[in-house]
Design goal:
Blueprint: H1 3-13, H2 17-22, E1 27-28, E2 39-40, H3 61-66, H4 70-93, H5 129-144, E3 156-160, E4 174-175, H6 179-186, H7 188-195, E5 201-204, E6 208-209, E7 212-213, H8 218-228, E8 234-236, H9 241-247, H10 255-264, H11 278-283, H12 289-305, H13 328-341, E9 343-347, E10 361-365, H14 373-376, H15 389-397, E11 402-406, H16 426-435, E12 438-444, H17 474-483, E13 488-493, H18 501-506, E14 509-512, H19 520-528, H20 561-564, E15 582-589, E16 593-594, E17 599-608, E18 614-624, E19 633-642, E20 647-655, E21 661-662, E22 668-670, E23 673-680, H21 686-692, E24 697-703, E25 707-708
Parallel strand pairs: 3-5, 4-6, 5-8, 10-11, 10-12, 12-13, 13-14, 16-24
Antiparallel strand pairs: 1-2, 6-7, 9-14, 15-17, 17-20, 18-19, 18-23, 21-22, 22-25, 23-24
Length: about 700
């Protein structure tokens, strides 16, 4: 038993029933006689300390995923924890214990982005369980820190589990997933956060999974989370999700029954108000008081780990002052991550990078060119300065070239004011294109129309996308630019994959910029003009059309994501171009066989044979060579940065689990037979090869004996 568990138990033993119940609500009141101050558990830090004033606003999580860089995810989380502590210390000193002022951050979101229509997919690390696991683990470790005595902040893996839209149905929806899909796709990132990163909290989802409300699911919260994985932290409900049990799922008949179901099945903390009924539930025999004691003990233990009950100055993090917020170093890291998140999808005839010596005028058009909202995505903080794409280009160019600008059209409406005719800025677009030598079209979405139900406006689908096209008049603005005869670069600011079939056919250069954070405009400009080299890779598949997708409400993975799709993608998962060229040397496996408990070591050399310094991701995919198995799956990665001519050797280890697959009963099986291991800078699919002109190295690995892992 930890020292914190013992102290927590001693505290709880002194509480009355009413006091214990009060501590299970997110806005827990003070218990002054026990020296317990009031505490609001609800705080957000998806890509920076959110909703509590000034903080470093990093690129949205989907952009961080595009870096394919575990170290960057960890470094970002360390800054978030530092700023979180600095703000907490200042707020506590002022007696401010309001919402969004605590140290328990409800991040990361490690749900799988299985369908590009889902508005909250921008909060995730993409569609792949392995990439999501690696980034999630490092993010949690960065938030929680490595002090031997205290956590810097507490992380929370959400939303457990099988949660990815539709937003409009989330309060009543039953996501039906096979055991195989559960263990192969939906659960691995949560398991990694629990077992590897020792995440302090797990948040349940709104929906039901296979009939059980997630925040009251014995299968999820007891059988899997506690019994299988050994989770020791606390479980928090999503906000007002417990009320959904009786109001929308119709599983229970009253608030008291819902509260009892959640508590009895392992939910410890209620974001919402349903747990106010626990007093009556305990007195009426619906909930054993010992179970309530267990929940409150876990909550007190978290607060003790954070040093909340210690004398001022005892905890080392008490000395973190407010001047650690929004530092020049933090802004520099923000710019670095933003640059590395940008994915170059197309670069016909090496249009990019642009050469200012050959350009007299640059046209910047599109509704996201001057948009701050499109920089930040959702669950955002407040930056001390925002640099839009237009401002980034203006700052970079200075007086070396003329910059013309037109909004082109609103993001999704057809005119800029109520009195004008539809398309009132299209003539200006034509004028800007005519006056310019090159046109940068900045299109996309923002969190007002792509995001969470209730946060995003209900213009379309409660935050989800009705289709994969740019809304409103954006396609028309882009067509005008393409027909102008001037070279056009499309910069897309979205949190999700779009259908770019027309754009791919008509626009010579396409840069996917996600929601790139407060420094996003500088990052885009630096890449456009060759100050830095694009190195991002797609963490999601860009499909050709929405018609290829299964029904949004179908949670089977069949036909979904690069792991199970049969058709060619337009732009595949793991794909991204560079301004420089990298060449792989011979790839070797030190072992030709894999067995239970074993490991395969891969060695490969990589050289920058181009003329520009740049980053590249070595990607390793594994394919079981038998019928009915997924496409090659990402199982290893390593980010490298090389100067022109520089070469390095990369070593990647593949454990036995990299070759194993889950069967229909949810058992992880390492099957006897042959496996293909692909080592490269992309997926081993025909479309990636056609786009890059490169092919991964293939290595044969054999397993001699079937084993359950």
């Amino acid at each position: 038993m930890s020292k914190y568990r013992k102290r927590a138990q001693e505290l709880v033993a002194q509480m009355t029933l009413e006091e214990k119940v009060s501590q299970t609500l997110y806005n827990a009141p003070a218990i002054e006689r026990l020296g317990i101050p009031a505490y609001n558990w609800w705080n957000e830090a998806l890509h920076g300390v959110a909703r509590a004033g000034t903080a470093t606003v990093f690129p949205q999580a989907i952009g961080v995923a595009a870096t394919f860089d575990e170290d960057l995810a960890g470094a970002m989380a360390e800054v978030i924890a530092e700023e979180g502590r600095a703000k907490y210390n200042a707020q506590k000193k002022a007696g401010d214990r309001d919402i969004y002022k605590g140290l328990t951050f409800w991040a990361p979101n490690v749900n799988i982005f299985r369908d590009p229509r889902w508005g909250r997919g921008q909060e995730t690390y993409g569609e792949d369980p392995y990439l999501t696991s690696r980034l999630g683990v490092r993010f949690v470790e960065g938030l929680q820190g490595d002090d031997p005595d205290y956590m810097k902040t507490a992380a929370c893996a959400k939303h457990f589990a099988v949660h990815s839209g539709p937003e409009s149905l989330r309060h009543s929806f039953d996501a039906k997933a096979s055991k195989q899909d559960m263990y192969e796709t939906y659960l691995p990132a949560f398991k990694a956060c629990v077992q590897e990163a020792k995440v302090e909290a797990v948040m349940g989802a709104y929906n039901r999974t296979n009939g059980e409300p997630c925040c009251g699911s014995k299968t999820l919260l007891q059988d899997i989370l506690r019994d299988e994985w050994g989770f020791e932290g606390h479980v928090v409900s999503d906000c007002w999700a417990v009320m959904d049990f009786h109001e929308n799922h119709k599983i229970t008949k009253s608030e008291k029954e819902s509260a009892a179901m959640a508590m009895n099945n392992g939910c410890d903390l209620n974001c919402g108000c349903a747990f106010r009924s626990l007093r009556d539930a305990v007195k009426g025999g619906y909930v054993e008081e010992s179970r309530l004691d267990e929940a409150v003990t876990r909550l007190m233990e978290t607060r003790l780990k954070l040093g909340m009950f210690e004398e001022e100055g005892t905890v080392p993090f008490d000395r973190i002052s407010y001047d650690r917020v929004d530092t020049p170093q933090n802004r520099a890291l923000n710019l670095k991550i933003a640059e590395k998140s940008l994915v170059l999808l197309k670069n016909e005839n090496n249009l990019l990078p642009l050469d200012l010596e050959k350009i007299g005028a640059i046209g910047v058009i599109g509704p996201n060119a001057a948009s701050r909202k499109a920089l930040v995505g959702n669950y955002e903080g407040t930056a001390s300065r925002y640099v839009t794409v237009l401002e980034g280009i203006q700052d970079y160019v200075g007086d070396r070239a003329r910059v013309f600008y037109s909004e082109g059209c609103p993001l999704h409406r057809d005119k800029t004011s109520g009195l004008t005719a539809a398309g009132d800025r299209l003539s200006e677009v034509k004028a800007v294109c005519e006056a310019s030598d090159v046109v940068v079209a900045v299109m996309g979405l923002d969190a007002d129309i792509e995001g969470e139900q209730g946060d995003a406006g209900n213009e379309f689908a409660s935050g989800d996308k009705p289709d994969l096209n740019f809304p409103g008049l954006q396609p028309e603005v882009l067509r005008i630019a393409a027909e102008s005869g001037k070279p056009v670069i499309l910069v897309s600011l979205t949190g999700s994959a779009m259908a770019f079939a027309w754009e791919d056919a008509h626009i010579p250069a396409i840069l996917q910029a996600w929601y790139p954070g407060a420094q996003g405009g500088h990052a885009v400009a630096r890449v456009l003009f060759g100050e830095s080299c694009p190195e991002g890779k797609l963490p999601v598949t860009f499909y050709r059309t929405m018609e290829e997708l299964p029904e949004f409400t179908d949670y089977s993975m069949k036909g979904r994501t690069y792991r199970y799709m049969q058709q060619d993608a337009l732009y595949p998962f793991g794909y991204g171009l560079s301004y420089t060229r990298f060449e792989l040397g011979e790839a070797k496996a030190l072992q030709e066989n894999i067995e239970a408990g074993g490991c395969v070591q891969l060695d490969v050399s990589i050289q920058n044979t181009g003329a520009m310094a740049g980053g590249q991701t070595v990607q390793v995919y594994v394919k079981a060579l038998r019928e009915g198995t997924p496409n090659p799956q990402l199982k290893g990665l390593k980010k490298v940065f090389l100067k022109p001519g520089e070469e390095t050797r990369v070593t990647i280890f593949l454990p036995d689990t990299a070759f194993a697959l889950y069967d229909e009963e949810g058992r992880r099986m390492l099957e006897a037979g042959e496996y293909a291991v692909f080592v490269g800078m992309q997926q081993p699919d025909g479309r990636s090869e056609a786009l890059t002109g490169q092919k991964p190295r293939r290595i044969r690995i054999v397993c001699g004996q079937t084993a359950q892992l």
